[in-house]
Amino acid sequence: MYKMFLTNLKMMVRGRQALFWSLFFPMVFTIIFGFFFSGDTAGVGTIVLINQSNTELASSLEKAMGESNIFKIQKETDLGTAKDLLKKNKITAIIEIPADFGSPKLDSPKQIIVINDPANAQSNLAVTGFLDKYLTVVNYQIQKAQPIYSVKIETTTDTNLTYYDFVLVGLIGMALMNASIQGIAISMAKYRQDKILKRITTTPLRSWKFVFAEVSARLVQNLVQISLILIVGIYFFHAHIAGNIFLLIVFAMLGGLLFQSIGFAVASVATTVDAAQGMSIAVTIPMMFLAGVFFPIDQLPKWLFSIVQYLPLAPLLRMMRGIGLENISPFTNQINIIIVFAWIVVMLFVSIMRFRLADE
Amino acid sequence: MNNVISVKNLTKKYGSLIAVDRISFEVYKGEVFGLLGENGAGKTTTLEMIEGLRKPTSGEIKVLGFDAVHDIQHIKERIGVQLQSSAYYDYLKLREILDLFGSFYQKKLNPDDLFKMVGLESKADQYIKNLSGGQRQRFSIIASLINDPEIVFLDEPTTGLDPVARRNTWDIIAKIKEKGKTIILTTHYMEEAEILCDRIAIMEKGKIITIGKPHQLIEQAETPYKVEFVLEKDNQKTIDRLLNACEARDCDIKKLPGKTAHYEMHIKSQELLNKAITALQKENPESFTIGRATLEDLFIELTGKTIADEENGNV
């Protein structure tokens, strides 16, 4: 069995195409998302500021924007140039402070102009939110009024989390899912098609030893995937993992087992490589988009959320994000762990009942 | 004689389809035993039940004294199996494949000796994709020998090979026999079975229709003698004269497909053979060869009768 395990590892390394999809592909996602969303700009991007006013209010607003850490400020003087940059998607919005804004003159302008691209909904919200809040404070000061009611925000973590942190954990789940489900389903279907499984059954090697060696080798692959994504995310793009990384890896590996059991279940019904490819894509693609890899699924319509929250990847990602981002014990919300184990049990049952090395 | 395999009333059904129908036979130690038949005759199913790959519907199989259903682990340690058109791992070199398969057994031969046996020493560190069809088949055979098995199962070992590769495979099978191994092979090449097999069983529609030593079976055939001849041109009168010479009801002349005026005469006895030859010489044929019937002739005789009986509703 040990020899079979080592041989499986050797074949994984030599199978360049499979290696690409299991390691390089998720790494590309990690790097692209890192470039777009890492750091403290929270993904709002660059804002062009055209400040035509010399007043104290305009200067203090400009200073506040610069110190806000919500967006990067690029100063321009010409509106035409700025609009051109916006059209080319090189910036996310233009803030124009008109001449004499903030001046005590009666006819001085009272509005700041924001020009944005409706496609950048998230950035637009951040820009208008910041300006609204700033001007509200200024209005209170001018009217010498004190706000009575306010909001106190407490977060579950002391760390300043970003969208990249959220998506990084999602990418780990996605990588494990794709490599395990597709890897197991396709390789088992190929082995069956080439009669390698049948050839194995003519030897004294027990079926469970063959499966155990396959699963163990895949877990090593999973560990490499998780480690690489975390290393690139944390060291190159400054992702924040507030919780226990070791625990995060342990539960990610649990995810590896979950997806491998799904892979064997798919392999038990797919008789050809083409069928295995089609079926594993049909299983992984919906989960990739509906189980919370790229965005929180509670933003989905309620009816859809009530269904997709039970997809195998969804509770796994909730657990992993709880552990990694919020430092919450996976046992705090036990429903997640129950769903994950329920999926493992169901898929193992299907695999044990249906997956055979030989035809009968 | 020591039997190493004993099959009694073996049956395999898939729903209403009877793939193997109450067959019984024994295989003796050290012999090459051939299971012959057309595609779908039940050869591979029989073999796979003996190898423990399929469960019999009923009947008994003993291999080296062990029950093939309950003691299959003991059997697997002592047999070697080469599957019909089986592939091996794409990303392992030949030596690594043998090492891997060797690790499944308690007893393991040195891969280099096996490579040497089939002339694949130079390919030991190559991937399977770099081998020709014949080399793959040779490798597939040595992969079945890695545990130094007492019985070797070869399922259609020469199917799809060119004549040279096929003859190379025959040599390898002969070498395995020389080492004292028992070999069971399936084939639909009658010439191959006739050359290689000590005994054969011909299967037809799941049943064994005859079993024995090839030469004895041929001698027992209805028409054990054969004369093949080519005339200058097709001439029915010549054929009629030949049929008269060898007493029409005891011989049979068939025009062979393809070549013009190419005939085959099947004859029941030595006496009639002599008469036929004398008559044929008078007709001045372009060529003629005299010989014994082959296993292929026997096979056609046996299975042809079955088909004719079925068509006549005599089954």
Question: What string, H for helix and E for strand, traces the elements of chain A in order?
Answer: HHEHEHEEHHHHHHHHH
Report the radius of gyration of chain A as a whole number of Å. 27 Å
Biggest pleated sheet of chain B: 6 strands, mixed
Across the major sheet of chain B, the strand order is 6-7-8-3-9-10
Name of the CATH superfamily of the largest domain in chain B: P-loop containing nucleotide triphosphate hydrolases
CATH level-two architecture of the largest domain in chain B: 3-Layer(aba) Sandwich
Shape of chain A: elongated
Helical amount among residues of chain A, as a percent range?
Answer: 55-70%
**Quaternary status of these chains?**
heterodimer
Secondary structure tally, helices of chain B? 11
**Distance N to C terminus of chain B:** 35 Å
Average pLDDT metric of chain A = 86
| Rg of chain B (CA only) | 23 Å
Largest sheet of chain A: 4 strands, mixed
**Averaged pLDDT of chain B, please?**
87
What class would the helix/strand composition of chain B place it in?
Answer: alpha/beta
Structural class of chain A: mainly alpha
- Number of E strands of chain A: 4
Question: Which residues of chain A sit in consecutive blocks of at least 5 with pLDDT less than 50?
Answer: none
DSSP strand tally of chain B: 14
